[in-house]
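Here is one such protein, fold included:

. . .
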Amino acid sequence: MSPDNREAHLECVGRLYSHQVVLGLPLRMWRIRIRAWAALSTVERRIASMQSSLSNFAEVERAAYGLLEQRAQQQVAANESPLSWRAEYARCRLALQKLERVEAVDSPSDPVPLGVLVEGADSVTIRQRPALIRSIKQQASELEKANRNDDPACWTLASDEMRRATAELAESEIQKLCSGLEAHVLDLYSLEEVIKHLRGRRKEQALAKKEKQRTRDNIQKLWEKLQAWCKVPTDGITQQEQRNQGILAEGAFKRVLQQDFPWGEEARQPRDQRIARMLARCFEQKARCEEELHLVQEEMERAVKYYMLRVELLTERMQHTMTASVEKLLHKHLLHNRHMLRAFTSLKNGALPDDLSLVGYMDN
């Protein structure tokens, strides 16, 4: 096949695939909306259960809102003061030590593998390794110049500077992974509700099952990274050590899948404070679901307006005199836009749109 012919084939196949993806957009948005609805209903049931079982629910609710305000202030402070240069420098030094090894980059004595320390570095080939080493060395050199760290020799693995910086880096990564795991576990339960709503629609249910399996795989990957970071020695803080021991304990992953998270301070606080923290987490999840539903509704309204305008323009254009080939082409586009308008209109009204696409399109 000549290069021109190959390019023409690829262009045609790409156009056809894109058309099928567009046909599947209404149902994909329906799945997103059902998923958000399922998560919202789950959280609301949990809040209602707490309200019915607690005699002092009003007091606990006030405490939960106070925790939310405190978390918001902490988030603002974290955004204003990001990870220190020492932690980033420790990441560079640890990664360079691994990459410059002659044999395997990871040693059994290393608490954090290279792929966890630097995202994607474990898949780097031998030929690509020098470029990665140069990039990390340049980043480390910039940190040294910017912070006047003129004595890199003091940053050995056994030094106090490296130990404190590594502990700070590990704590930052642990907090990010804990938040990500909470969100993914909530998505996992939401997808179970989506699968129940899709009974009788084998194609859509199969797609939802694949997405659920992919979410579970992501949870497993995040959990492995979290356990790796929890093996890093802490900077002498007892609460962090207890949290890390709870994460590394046997059966902790099973409890996480049941939304019983071993991190936070819930396990060491009185009952009312633990419930207040659980309620605050529910309020956060509820706000996130409501925001997602609002965004989906706005996107559906935009889609209806867009395809309505397209149908009007094509209908008006076809009323004029034109050649048979142009009329055939415009008629084809008009049918497609009418179908999309009907699909998004029914989706906006709460109905389940038909999926005419021939591909099982999934978000990456």
The mean pLDDT is 79. Residues 83-157 form one domain. DSSP finds twelve helices and no strands in the chain. Residues 271-318 form the longest helix (48 residues).
